[in-house]
Design a protein that fits this description.
SH3 domain-containing protein, 260 residues, 3 domains, 14% strand, SH3 type barrels, Serine Threonine Protein Phosphatase 5, Tetratricopeptide repeat, signal, alpha+beta, SH3-like_dom_sf, two-stranded antiparallel sheet, five-stranded antiparallel β-sheet, 9 helices
């Protein structure tokens, strides 16, 4: 009798464990499913739940421009300035020429308190930066490889060709592709340098005092508010030295900003 009772208890325990495992597996979602669930919640104006689902995708180690864009939109609908700007900026890193991201980022930036006028750029620098921003570092690297290959093939056809017209045409193609390849290579190195040397962050604190030295007792030089984008120049302990687009510099506690 005791043996039968013991067997019955074991069977009951196995059934319970099986039910628990089944419930866990049913509730577990893949990153794609979480993303789609977040989109569904967003469509129903349930922005808090949408944010939770999008953040679970990020926690799982997945990211995309669409994910950051949707996460930014959900925060924007809740009037959360800093998370909106931050996630639009993250999306823009992955898709630097996306018009929708740029437009929505502008809307989010319009909610910020700080009005910062960037330093003026000369015409050449402006054109250079516009050209540089056409593609990412990987994009310029791929273009460079393609152009160098085109130069090599064109030069071989020119060198071994017999017809004068053919040789002239491929010499021109080789010359142009070499020039464009060197320009593309220069832009690739510039993009790489920018990625290494330019670290940006977004202010998350509602109000942050910017100091003239990395300690709490130093003098305040100016105040920033949430959503403002800054460039990080240096780190020292719990402080970061930042520079604004208008050239102002100062020290801010690390806890007040979030690196992009």
């Amino acid at each position: 009798m005791k043996t039968q009772d013991l067997q019955l208890k074991y069977r009951s325990l196995i059934v319970i464990l099986a039910l628990i495992c089944s419930a866990f597996l049913a509730s577990a979602q893949t990153p794609q499913q979480l993303f789609e669930t977040g989109n569904s919640q967003y469509a129903q104006n349930n922005f808090e739940e949408a944010i939770k689902n999008y953040e679970q995708v990020l926690d799982a180690g997945y990211e995309s421009a669409e994910l950051y864009y949707n996460l930014a939109n959900a925060n924007y609908r809740l009037n959360r300035i800093a998370p909106s700007v931050y996630n639009y900026e993250k999306a823009l890193v992955l898709k630097p020429n996306d018009k929708a991201i740029k437009n929505n980022l502008q809307f989010a930036q319009n909610m910020t308190v700080d009005a910062i006028t960037p330093l003026p750029e000369n015409t050449f620098k402006k054109w250079w930066n516009q050209l540089l921003n056409l593609f990412s570092l990987d994009g310029w690297a791929i273009i460079t490889v393609v152009l160098i290959m085109l130069f090599t093939l064109s030069f071989l056809v020119y060198y071994f060709g017999n017809k004068t017209v053919l040789k002239r045409s491929f010499f021109t193609i080789a010359f142009v592709s070499l020039g464009l390849g060197l320009l593309s290579l220069t832009l690739a190195f510039q993009a790489q340098s920018n990625e290494k040397n330019k670290r940006f962050a977004v202010v998350f604190s509602p109000e942050a005092e910017i100091k003239n030295a990395p300690n709490i007792g130093s003098d305040e030089v100016f105040v920033l508010h949430e959503g403002t984008k800054v460039r990080v120049i240096e780190e020292q302990g719990d402080w970061q030295m930042i520079r604004l687009a208008d050239g102002q510099e100062g020290w801010i506690p690390k806890a007040d900003v979030k690196l992009l």
